[in-house]
Amino acid sequence: MNNIEAEKRINRYILYIENDAQNKIKDIDSKIEEEYNMEKGSQTQTQCLAILNHYGNKEKNLDLQLKFAYSQLKSNAKIAILTSKDHSINEILKEVGQKLKKKNKDVEVYKGILEKLILQGMLALLDKNVTLGILKEDKDVIKEVIPKAEQKYKEMTGLETKADVDPKRFLPDSRLGGVEVYGSSDTVKVCNTFEARIELLREKASPYIRLILYGPNSNRTFTD
């Protein structure tokens, strides 16, 4: 083999090596671009999901805030309505108290009321001896009332009872009237003051007063 042929062969090897190297470079570039595009797509998708989650959470939080605000407004409105209703009921019961106070001035009417309140206490206690707590100003009136209450008690039960005013248990002057009836053991008492009766009226009659004032409550299945 002469120098010319050797040179040609060497050139062919060099050309082969260069072509092979170019092909490998292309493969490497292609793989790099493919991996880059895949990574780019993955990162883009991740970022998009992160953005969607971010705004999705914001939307959920806003929705929750709106629901909470609406619930709060609704609750406040209910409280305001109930407060207004209770105020109206209190005004009615206050008026009842004032009317009862006026009846105190009508001695005959007041005597009848005291008699019934004392009798009710006697029937609740069923005791041979009871003591009464009254207003100081009612001392004279009560003297006429006690015998009538004792007699009615005997007619209704066939039993006898003795009622006496306890000077240590006078009601405060601020009270509207009525009576407190104590058993002989002093451990049991029936509170039949006008204030106690008004409070009982509040508990018993409030649902009916609300019904008269405001009509049926559409949110309630049952009535009291």
From TrEMBL:
Keyword flag Ion transport: yes
InterPro entries, per the entry: ATPase_E_C, ATPase_V1_Esu
Keyword check for Ion transport: yes
Top-rank taxon: Eukaryota
Gene Ontology MF terms in the entry: proton-transporting ATPase activity, rotational mechanism
Pfam families on file: vATP-synt_E
Record keywords: Ion transport, Transport
Any single Gene Ontology cellular-component annotation: proton-transporting two-sector ATPase complex, catalytic domain
Protein family per UniProt: Belongs to the V-ATPase E subunit family.
PANTHER family the record matches: ATPASE H+-TRANSPORTING V1 SUBUNIT E1A-RELATED (PTHR45715)
Protein name, per record: Uncharacterized protein
Species name: Brassicogethes aeneus
